[in-house]
Write a structure and sequence with these properties.
The structure is a single chain. By secondary structure, the chain is an all-alpha fold. Among the domains are: 182 residues, no CATH class; 65 residues, no CATH class; 71 residues, no CATH class; 63 residues; 66 residues, no CATH class; 127 residues, no CATH class; 147 residues, no CATH class. Helix content is 65%, strand content 0%. It is rod-shaped and about 185 Å long. It starts with a helix and ends with a helix. 41% of the residues are buried. The N terminus is likely disordered.
């Protein structure tokens, strides 16, 4: 009987269950059966407890039963049979189905108001619309009450489980797994019982969509556990946050390393961090706020719903969307910023770092790692991440993290976009907040503007060391991927794609990083294009501006110049380990350029060329010469174009009064000048103007100084030969500019500095001003050692050959040049100044320099281009033996000029040469110092006999004193006698070379001899004739001077006519004698007599031989 009863009950239950299933399916399918829908749950066998538990309910319809069940305690719900829970779950689910609302709820409870409420059936948010309509109904209206009951039965966060209902509803029905929210959990966790049933009953049959929905609930379950463990921590550390909210979780993460955080809570947070790194949905706030954006922009990239997607992938995708100009939802943007900060705070959010840096963390960051192990903390706020970042840029290979760890860190910097917002990195934020508050408080946030402001402050007093260190670590990575600089990427993306093969998308999975090892260097490419001479390949104006800014900022540190740093790690360790100041590492590499490894040297040379052309790449100059550039070179700053003009401007003004006081700027300029000596390419204007001619004439020259010397020699030879210049004007100008700089500072001529090192210390140690050391060496020429003497000879040869390279002359005589020689070519400036040196308005300092240059010129004909040009043929004809016997790079001490003097007295010179000699002899007559032989041979006589006249040595008084002493037989020294006699005899050839006589007789010359041609002594002969025929017609002073000169001429002739020492001197004396015709007649007569005697004696001898033979 019992058995039969059980069978009947089972059959009845089965029949009832089948009936219920048909009714439920009919309701879901839209079948209208209100009676069945209103009276099924409480009548089910599994739901008999509801009759007792819900006896207080006035109605027993399904909605009332659901309302009643939602008020049960956890223990009451737990006691309900699973079958009843499933039916109640279905009822709650039906409340969200528009078909059930339309076919069951509205006809049953709101039949009269159905027409007004049907418009909500097509609404996206059905119950929000119904709730809005409910509020329009009277409160005593029955429909109003039923709508309120239905809305409350859904729970306030019903929309959170909508995805779960959609993805898993059919499977839940199939396996009867609907469960009530026994533990009264919020949001999606209300379905936790349902999920557990599915996992145990239908795990193998779950489709991807349902699996994904279940994963989301499981993630929320983990979060629930976290908040359970961290309940007290949340209350104490984040009292303002609501339990279970996204804000509460973020607050706990921020306080993870707080001393008040319990170890259990910290451990839970760490676990959640790791899970979040593997699956972004662990972060409920991000998944919810960015749900639509992730779907719209396909951020899952083909990954099925049941698969995990890394947080990094989602963040990169969303950042790429934002960087490419699309606006994300505000809530999503906020979550994006929060998660970027979280990434830089806790490395455990990045699975790449956990795996790739597992060995590097204990090796390089032992203290931080120990704190993690002991305290259960990952770091003290980003310190482990910064520790690893520091070891990416370590100079020595053994102190650098592994390659895979470096890649993980690069990904972290890109995902967190740390270069865009200084607040993302907690270490940077803490270190730089005081700097930002002072120096960047007015800078608008966003797009790395504050980061750019901080970089600009490096090296200034406001910058703090810890801030600079943290900043340079982040900028190290930004410098290696132009995408990480928001302003640069925004303005230059199109140009980078067009000219530099950059990818158009910000987030390129195939090319995550673009450093020298794995892709094109975009920024160097843009920099080259910024200054391209091709009109069809130029950057847009806003991009050009950004490229200049970035290149200027990168020059602050070698770490920020990857195209150099990545090739020079070994050399930086070897030569520059102690260089810590701004820009000092590049200066160090430049100083040691000749010792660098080949690859490093190549990139340093290239960068130095760019630095020379664009001063913004020189951080030292930019840092210490800002005021000088504003004051002296503002036009170049305003133009925005440099190409070497700025350095030329600074060099031109470095000896101005303000820069002489600004020692740091002056030192930076001189350092650049010294570095530029290593290669002529380091001087932009010089390189552009002279490169073809360097290859043509100076291919074997190594340094810039050698190149300059080589080109200068070519220019000099063209000038002397009076031929068309082989080197064009632009290059000649640059060569002169380089020579001018060498004369200003002896350090810019290393060969000269090395050759004269001892002499500089001995004679010129106190000569520190511009050009003073060189002038000192020139004055001490006779005391110099051979190497130094030879080097100074070459300097004088170059300097006296072209006045445009004479620093001392140009600067001392600047006003006189402007006044007397404004339109004279620089090569002729000395000749012009010579003409005006005795003008009453001529500056005395300039006068002294000009006279000194004249003295130097008279020591060697090679120092006088005008003499070489005018007398070249005569020198070859008469003085070639002197030139041939000259030692290399040593002065001839006036020997060639002395040779030409002799020919001048004999009137044997060509007219151009004779005129040039007249100028020289005039100057020598007025200043004995211009006559090197006279100075040497008559040194003691000048000191003893003419000491009183030495003060007036530029008015011919010393020469006149020596002539008088010669006349009075006071000169004993034979060589001095000869020199003074020569000086006297020169006036016989042309009165112009005797200024004192010429000045005394100027009136008589104009009165009586104005029509007499100059030269060959004709003017003097005119005066001598007048003296002989009509002596009283001459002025008294002229007559007196002339009589003394004639007496001197006789004595000079006697001295110069002493017996010759060899045949050559004999011939020279006969040819020079006024009686040379008489000597010629005697010679011919003697020759004739010898000839006749020979004929006579020849016949006599022939006759005698004939007689003998007979």
């Amino acid at each position: 009987m019992l058995h039969l009863l059980l069978v009947v009950l089972a059959a009845t239950a089965a029949s009832a269950e089948n009936s219920i299933q048909r009714i439920r399916r009919a309701a879901i399918a839209g079948e209208k059966d209100p009676a069945q829908a209103m009276h099924k749950i409480i009548d089910l066998a599994d739901c008999q407890d509801l009759k007792k538990l819900c006896a207080h309910q006035k109605s027993t319809d399904n909605l009332s039963m659901l309302e009643c069940a939602l008020t049960f305690s956890s223990s009451q719900l737990e006691e309900l049979p699973e079958g009843c829970q499933h039916e109640l779950w279905l009822q709650q689910r039906q409340l969200q189905l528009p078909t059930w609302i339309e076919n069951t709820f509205l006809p049953t409870y709101c039949a009269a108001e159905k027409s007004k409420l049907e418009s909500c059936l097509n609404s996206v948010h059905l119950w929000i619309c119904l709730e809005h309509q409910r509020l329009k109904l009277p409160q005593n209206n029955a429909c109003h009450q039923h709508l309120r009951r239905g809305y409350e039965a859904l729970s306030h966060d019903y929309s959170a489980v909508d995805d779960f209902y959609t993805a898993c509803g059919l499977i839940v029905e199939e396996h009867k797994c609907g469960r009530l929210n026994i533990d009264h959990l919020p949001s999606m966790l209300a379905q936790l019982g349902t999920v557990q049933c599915l996992q145990s009953s239908a795990k193998s049959s779950l489709d991807p969509a349902c699996t994904s929905a279940i994963s989301s609930i499981e993630l929320q379950r983990g979060m629930l556990e976290l908040f359970r463990v961290c309940q007290n921590d949340l209350s104490s550390l984040c009292p303002q946050e609501k339990v279970g909210s996204a804000g509460a979780f973020k607050c706990l993460v921020r306080h993870k390393t707080h001393s008040a955080m319990s170890p259990l809570c910290a451990s839970q947070i760490t676990q959640r961090d790791e899970e979040m790194g593997r699956d972004y949905r662990v972060s409920h706030g991000l998944a919810k706020a960015c749900k639509d954006d992730i779907k719209l922009y396909h951020c899952r990239r083909g990954v099925s719903e049941d698969k995990h997607v890394r947080l990094a992938q989602i963040l990169l995708c969303l950042e790429s969307v934002s960087k490419n100009g699309t606006r994300l939802a505000p809530a999503c943007l906020s979550e994006l910023g929060d998660h970027r900060r979280m990434l830089m705070t806790d490395y455990q959010l990045s699975p790449e770092l956990l795996n790739d840096c597992a060995d590097d963390i204990p090796k390089f960051c032992p203290d931080e790692h120990k704190a993690q192990l002991v305290n259960g903390m990952s770091s003290t706020g980003g310190e482990i991440i910064h520790c690893l970042l520091e070891h990416v840029k370590a100079r020595r290979q053994q102190r650098r993290v592994t390659a895979q760890c470096q890649r993980g860190l690069e990904t972290l910097i890109k995902v967190s976009d740390a270069g865009e917002d200084w607040r993302v990195d907690p270490v940077l934020r803490r270190a730089c907040k005081p700097v930002v508050d002072v120096a960047c408080k007015d800078v608008e946030g966003g797009e790395a503007r504050v980061m750019s402001c901080l970089v600009e402050r490096i090296g200034t007093p406001v910058m703090r060391p810890d801030c600079e260190q943290a900043l340079l670590i982040i900028e190290y990575f930004v410098a290696r991927d132009f995408k990480l600089d928001p302003q640069l990427y925004k303005h230059c993306r199109d140009d980078a794609v067009k000219y530099c093969r950059a990818k158009r998308q910000w987030d390129d999975a195939q090319n995550i990083q673009m450093d020298p090892e794995r892709g094109p260097m975009i920024l160097p490419c843009l920099h080259r294009m910024a200054f391209s001479e091709d009109e069809h390949q130029t950057l847009r104006k806003d991009c050009f501006k950004e490229v200049k800014r970035v290149m200027r900022q990168r020059a602050v540190s070698m770490d920020l110049i990857p195209e150099v740093e990545d090739y020079c790690l070994n050399d930086l360790s070897l030569f520059c380990a102690d260089c810590t100041e701004k820009g000092s590492e590049m200066e160090c590499l430049q100083k040691n350029m000749d010792q660098l490894q080949a690859e490093c040297k190549t990139v340093v040379v290239k960068y130095t060329e760019e630095e020379a052309a664009h001063v913004e790449l020189n951080p030292v100059i930019m840092n210490v010469c800002g005021e000088a550039m504003q004051q002296h070179c503002s036009d170049i700053l305003k133009s925005g174009k440099d190409n070497g003009d700025m350095m030329d401007c600074l060099i031109a003004h470095k000896n101005d009064a303000d820069l002489r006081k600004d020692l740091r700027c002056r030192a930076a300029i001189e350092h650049f000048q010294i570095i530029s000596l290593k290669n002529f390419h380091f001087t932009t204007k010089f390189k552009e103007a002279c490169r073809p001619f360097v290859q043509r004439f100076c291919s074997s020259s190594a340094t810039k100084n050698e190149v300059v010397a080589c080109l200068s020699e070519v220019m000099r030879n063209d000038t002397i030969k009076a031929q068309r210049h082989q080197i064009p004007k632009e290059c000649r100008h640059q060569v002169k500019a380089q020579l001018y700089q060498q004369r200003e500072s002896i350090q810019l001529d290393p060969k000269l500095a090395n050759a004269c090192k001892r002499e500089l210390e001995q004679f010129c140690e106190d000569q520190k001003g511009p050009g003073q050391a060189l002038e000192c060496l020139v004055r001490k020429t006779t005391s110099l050692g051979k190497p130094c003497h030879h080097a100074i000879f070459l300097v004088k040869k170059s300097e006296l050959g072209d006045s445009g390279t004479d620093y001392t002359l140009l600067n001392t005589c600047k006003d006189m040049i402007y006044k007397f020689c404004p339109k004279i070519d620089s090569i002729k400036l000395l000749d012009c100044l010579k003409t005006y040196k005795d003008d009453t308005q001529f500056d005395q300092r300039c006068h002294l320099v000009v006279v000194n240059r004249m003295i130097e010129q008279n020591t060697d004909f090679r120092f006088n281009p005008s003499l070489q040009s005018a007398c070249g043929k005569n020198i070859d004809r008469y003085c070639s033996n002197i030139v041939a016997s000259a030692l290399p790079n040593e002065e001839l001490n006036g020997k060639v000029i002395h040779c030409l003097k002799d020919k001048f007295r004999q009137s044997a010179l060509d007219e151009p040469c004779a005129q040039e000699m007249i100028k020289i002899l005039q100057d020598q007559a007025l200043n004995y110092k211009l006559n090197p032989l006279l100075q040497v041979f008559c040194k003691s006589e000048i000191q003893e006999l003419c000491k009183a006249n030495m003060e007036a040595d530029e008015h011919g008084q010393v020469a006149e004193c020596l002539k008088t002493a010669f006349l009075q037989k006071q000169i004993i020294n034979r060589q001095c006698q000869m020199e003074v006699a020569t000086l006297i005899a020169e006036a016989k050839a042309d009165i112009h070379v005797d200024p004192i006589l010429e000045n005394a007789c100027i009136v008589d010359l104009l009165r009586y001899c104005s029509k007499v041609a100059a030269g060959n002594g004709r003017k003097l002969s005119c005066l001598r004739t007048l003296l002989k025929d009509t002596p009283n017609s001459l002025e008294a002073e002229c007559r007196e001077k002339l009589e003394r000169r004639i007496e001197m001429f006789h004595n000079a002739d006697d001295t110069l006519a002493l017996p010759p020492e060899d045949v050559q001197q004999l011939v020279q004396q006969v040819v020079a004698s006024p009686a040379r015709k008489f000597f010629l007649v005697i010679l011919m007569s003697a020759t004739g007599m010898v000839f006749l005697t020979g004929i006579f004696l020849g016949r006599a001898t022939k006759r005698a031989m004939g007689l003998k033979n007979k």
